[in-house]
Design a protein that fits this description.
Length: about 80
């Protein structure tokens, strides 16, 4: 993964106005290619993601809701991340 780390984000945010609201921008996938935004309301300090070829994006792993039969193997290929949601 080559996205921003906590340290890089912290340095970028350090000098910004405390009262400004942060949103997360992403492609809506609509016909016009518009970019939409979501507010951030939660920080999960210890989340896990894995690459999904089907989605062409990283997929958040929920070990409490997986399809493994006996022992859960979902975290074997996973990367630990901080998740804003
Ligand atoms: Zn599993």
């Amino acid at each position: 993964m080559d996205g921003m780390t906590v340290g890089e984000l912290r340095r970028e945010l350090e000098f910004l106005d405390d009262d400004k609201v942060i949103v997360f921008a992403y492609g809506s996938g609509d016909h016009w290619g518009r970019v939409v935004a979501e507010e951030i309301s939660d920080i999960e300090e210890c989340g896990y993601v894995t690459w999904s070829d089907y989605h062409g994006k990283y997929k958040i792993i929920d070990v409490n809701d997986c399809m493994c039969d006996d022992e859960c193997s979902c975290l074997e290929e996973a990367t630990e991340v901080v998740i804003l949601g």
